[in-house]
Amino acid sequence: MEQLKPSAANNSPLTPLGFLERAATIYSDTPSIIYNDTVFTWSQTHNRCLQLASSITSLGIRRGNVVSAIAPNIPAMYELQFAVPFTGAILNNINTRLDARTISTILRHSESKLVFVDCAARDLVLEALLLFPSNLQRPLLILIKDETFEEVTSSTVDSNFISTYEDLTVKGDPLFKWVPPKTEWDPMLLNYTSGTTSSPKGVVHSHRGTFIVTVDSLIDWAVPKQPILLWTLPIFHANGWSFPWGIAAVGGTNICVRKFDAETVFTLIKKHHVTHMCGAPVVLNMLTNSPDNKPLQHKVHILTAGAPPPAAVLYRTESLGFEVSHGYGLTETGGLVVSCSWKNKWNRLPATERARLKSRQGVRTIGMTNVDVVDPNGDSVKRDGATLGEVVMRGGCVMLGYLKDPEGTASCLRNGWFYTGDVGVMHEDGYLEIKDRSKDVIISGGENLSSVEVESVLYGHPAVNEAAVVARADEFWGETPCAFVSLKNGLKEKEIPKEKEIVEYCRKNLPHYMVPKTVVLIDELPKTSTGKIQKFVLRDMAKKMGPLKKSRL
């Protein structure tokens, strides 16, 4: 057959940004965003995002620049997921739970030109900028005000900020022509890993990859038209697993919430007839352990990932009327790419067995080409549910690579595979189950944290000789850091710290979610003959302690 070639008619770059214009056409008068007493329609959201993009461009932001956002799940944060890439710029969402030092590192490494700052994060970001070298240009700042959070007494903004978010939005052009990508491989997002190493890595995602994972997630979760999504998953967490664009694609309603607890969640579910939610297993645990929990009046679909959920938590969650779907993904995949796809025949099994099966991570989603578990030689391990190997994958939503880190990119993107660093088994039926994590990553409340980073702070304590940090099971957070510490010899009695004093020291030098909840003083850390600390011994010790009960950070 004659060799036909692509043309402009059939080769336009894939991007999820066009979903918003489509939503404004089909669902123009239906609610797009609800936040307390604020309600926007899809037509209004489309216009606001174009206006904001117009104003961002007027500030000199151009294609390829990085624009950062640090805010909770409020309307502005949702709008920024479209408005920033509408300018051709690269969107960088920053975790609101980070400390000033880490935020400063991210802003400098990304060379961010503009930062949208929620009022609650104002002092944190200003502190981060103070850590910039004097010869380094600081990014421009836009303040996101929120009358529901703080009393706004003046329409003016202090000298650290060039404008407020709303002022910038309303003065923009609603007829602005947004900047499409030149190719679908153009970068669209820059997400930093949650401290899986001592320094977070900047993960770059393309328009193509983001389009694929968005459509993939909608199909895999079987999201219908016009769902009502309660934003219990931070949008800064891998861009809300792609659902900011996904909900636009299906004309749904985004129920925004600045800060939530179990009472708030149950109230909003009832008030808005919520149909869908996302969150780490800690969210499931919070709901099931709350005194406010009651059987739901209607079914709510909840998608969980971030750490293997205990079967008991799944069982309790579904007993309330939630229908739990379980998946697996990484910052490097932009969302969930493995799903515990449910088989109808499993419905006939006892509830405890159903929960056990659902706690497995599952099989590749349709957007992924392949997912496997391999040995050090790169060969597939036995499908026996027992043989450990590293989880690898390939597919269209795998990242382009790590920003300014060719060695890190080459180490995980090799031989045609993305090597995740996670350790798992493959069951006989082809379902993946994560068993452990390399590099001693601890997942607390769905956020990855580095034991190396916690250890580096512990070593700064004047009385600490050696320190090693492993995960300890936590009934609320899933996992929390457990620190084993040996003290220096020759300390005077008044110089010997108590466990609580070491915790307080960490609290002053780390984000709260990274602070060890358990500190064990030990005479000497177990080591190999070459002097390396045997963390597997410490993990066994932490396991024997049992899970922490009702832990809070």
TrEMBL record:
PROSITE patterns, sorted: AMP_BINDING (PS00455)
Domain (AMP-binding enzyme C-terminal): residue spans on this chain: 453-532
Keywords: ATP-binding, Ligase, Nucleotide-binding
GO cellular component entries: cytosol
Protein name, UniProt field: Probable acyl-activating enzyme 6
Annotated AMP-dependent synthetase/ligase domain residues: 20-403
One protein family per Pfam: AMP-binding_C
Main location: cytoplasm
Similarity-based family: Belongs to the ATP-dependent AMP-binding enzyme family.
Signal peptide start-end: none
Organism: Cicer arietinum
Compartments in which it is found: Cytoplasm, Cytosol
Record flagged with keyword Kinase: no
NCBIfam families: PRK08162.1
Molecular-function GO terms, alphabetical: ATP binding; medium-chain fatty acid-CoA ligase activity
CDD domains hit by this protein: ttLC_FACS_AEE21_like
